[in-house]
Design a protein that fits this description.
Elements (H helix, E strand, L loop, with lengths): L2 H11 L12 E6 L1 H4 L10 H8 L11 E4 L30 H5 L5 E5 L3 H4 L4 H16 L4 E5 L9 H18 L3 E2 L29 H14 L10 E10 L2 E9 L6 E7 L5 E8 L7 E7 L5 E11 L2 E4 L3 E5 L4 E8 L5 E8 L3 E9 L4 E9 L3 E7 L7 E7 L5 E7 L1
Parallel strand pairs: 1-2, 1-3, 3-4, 4-5
Antiparallel strand pairs: 6-7, 7-10, 8-9, 8-11, 11-12, 11-13, 14-15, 15-18, 16-17, 16-19, 19-20
Helix pairs in contact: 3-8
Length: 413
């Protein structure tokens, strides 16, 4: 993630107010040839054209949904990146007519990104594609817009290896973006293990694009996502802010029309994509309008991203994302993951200087079940922790300098 992007993101979010609302009015579609309608008999029969028509069936209420389709055939994820993004050597620069910056210039409520196969066709790795999707997603949601990423799609002009990579890209997108992914693979692909585009859903003229039938399946996948009404609560959350004071983050928000038995999860992330709960609080009983403050005494080194998960009888919804830059923190756990056999746990650390850390595993009762010291080097290092002898359950990893500077992250064995 580039430093210029993070500076811009911090500026955008430093005092951002938000609310959940039913009145979604602008949709931007980004992507390549499928999003532009290629393969369909005409644009009106493409998935994007049918989506636009479905939201304009009733125009008597005076609230039209405006669609902006900036897709361009042949484009890839690098060309869709924000304008201030600097690509790696030998990779293309972003295009100002089709990229995230262009999409956000319309001040959209929803952005749908459909870049299904050109990265793999051009020899880019899945890791490159996913990194690009993550940055696009973060830059879009930071403005308050909702972002959906469609999965890869099968195509028949690629090698067996490339078709398998497209299949694996589908899995990565669904795993990473979860609800905010849209599955464009399953209704188009053969089920014989060849990962081919089905003949009955393929344009007769070539080997890449879905026909009218295929586009209709893609439209139904987007329609089923219910892009406007997903996760909308009756309650509105306003005056959401995060402020850094004395190495602690103060998280505040205000509610209106709060329902009974509402509770809130405060979630934190190192990258604005993968969040974990750091605290839960019960909504104030008998209050339809209330103010809340939660203190995070241990924000991560560098950037921390925060959001609120609101839970009520009407459903679950997420706030926008706010970031802070904690330059005083000197230690944080960036990632925590197990190997395939669950014999070892790897903790990726960010730290400002070389030093000896105390590494502990703590069970849910608060007992230390493993502890050792290890010398680590700045600015980033990894520690491997054996967990093969741990019983199944939830634990915490705590890395500490031995004083007040520490970082904690949970995992499940």
């Amino acid at each position: 993630m580039s430093s210029s992007f993070l500076r811009n993101l911090s500026f955008l979010l430093c005092a951002f107010n938000f609310q959940f609302a039913h009145a979604q009015k602008k949709v931007v579609i980004m992507g390549s040839s499928t999003a532009s309608g290629t393969g369909a008999s005409n644009y009106q029969l493409s998935w994007a054209g049918m989506l636009e028509s479905s939201f304009n069936v009733n125009t008597t209420d005076g609230v039209d949904t405006i669609f902006y389709n900036i897709a361009q055939p042949g484009s890839n994820t690098y060309q869709a990146m924000p304008s201030d993004y600097s690509p790696p050597p030998s990779r293309p620069s972003s295009l100002s007519t089709i990229n995230v910056t262009k999409a956000l210039s319309y001040q959209p409520n929803v952005v749908i990104i459909n870049l299904p196969s050109n990265d793999i066709a051009e020899g880019y790795s899945i890791n490159e594609t996913m990194n690009n999707f993550r940055l696009m997603y973060t830059s879009i949601t930071a403005t308050g817009a909702v972002c959906y990423i469609t999965t890869s799609q099968p195509r028949n002009d690629l090698s067996n290896v490339q078709r398998q990579l497209l299949h694996d890209t589908r899995d990565s997108i669904i795993k990473q973006f979860n609800f905010f992914s849209i599955n464009f693979w399953d209704d188009l692909a053969t089920t014989d293990g060849q990962n081919l585009l089905r003949d009955d859903r393929r344009s007769v003229a070539e080997l890449i694009h879905p026909n009218d039938v295929g586009h209709n399946f893609l439209f139904l996948s987007v329609k089923a996502k219910n892009i406007f009404d997903n996760g909308v609560l009756k309650m509105s959350l306003t005056k959401f802010a995060v402020a850094l004071t004395n190495n602690s983050a103060s998280i505040t928000w205000h509610t209106e029309e709060q329902e009974a038995n509402t509770f809130f999860d405060i979630e934190r992330s190192a990258d604005g994509i993968s969040f974990e709960k750091i605290r839960s609080i019960q909504g104030l009983a008998g209050k339809s309008s209330a103010d809340y403050t939660v203190i995070d005494n241990n924000p991560m080194a560098g950037y921390s991203f925060y959001r609120i998960k609101a839970n009520s009888s009407s459903g679950i919804s997420y706030s926008n994302i706010i970031s802070i830059n904690n330059k005083k923190a000197t230690l944080s756990i960036l990632k925590l993951y197990k190997d395939n056999g669950a014999t070892n746990l790897t903790a990726e650390l960010i730290l400002q200087k070389n030093e000896v850390l105390v590494i502990s595993i703590i069970n849910m009762a608060g007992a230390v079940v493993h502890q050792r010291k290890q010398y680590v080097t700045a600015p980033a290092d990894k520690v491997i922790i054996p967990i093969i002898n741990l019983a199944q359950g939830q634990y915490y990893v705590r890395v500490s300098t031995g004083g007040e500077n520490y970082s904690i992250k949970s995992f499940v064995k």
